[in-house]
Amino acid sequence: QVQLVESGGGLVQAGGSLRLSCSASGIIFGYYVMGWYRQAPGKQRELVATQTIGGRTNYADSVKGRFTISRDNAKNTVYLQMNSLKPEDTAVYYCNGDRPGISDRTYWGQGTQVAVSS
Fold first, then answer.
1. How many helices and strands in the chain, by DSSP H and E?
2. Kindly report the CA angle at 36 between 106 and 42, in degrees rounded to 5?
3. Chain CA centroid to CA 42, Å
4. 23 φ, ψ to 5°?
5. Using CA atoms, how far apart are residues 53 and 30, in angstroms rounded to an integer?
6. Model confidence over 38-52: pLDDT tens digits?
7. How confident is the model at residue 103 (pLDDT cuts 50, 70, 90)?
8. How much is the pLDDT for 104?
9. CB-based burial of residue 93 (10 Å sphere; 0-12 exposed, 13-18 middle, 19+ buried)?
10. Is 24 exposed, middle or buried (0-12, 13-18, 19+ CB in 10 A)?
11. Phi, psi of 30 (to 5 degrees)
12. What is the arithmetic mean of pLDDT over 77-93?
């Protein structure tokens, strides 16, 4: 059974920082591209950041320079360090695992709420 479990969300003031964690089980972590997505109320889910198996990263323009994705393959965990948070970063953040080239091998966590007050 595949599980992606996020933690680390919460309420923070603008300019503050949070670190999200996502622990994966039931998959061979090193085979998966790991990512973070977010969904604000009334909006579609959007990509925040991804990291490939080889470590290459991709960020949404809105978070470049403020957020950093990293992964620890030994711990089956992916992180999202969020600095200089803005009210517009408020959303539910979801962890995603995707195995490239294999259909039906995309998994989602349950989400963790991040709220940034102005």
1. 0, 11
2. 95
3. 20
4. -100, 130
5. 6
6. 999 999 999 999 999
7. confident
8. 83
9. buried
10. buried
11. -70, -10
12. 98
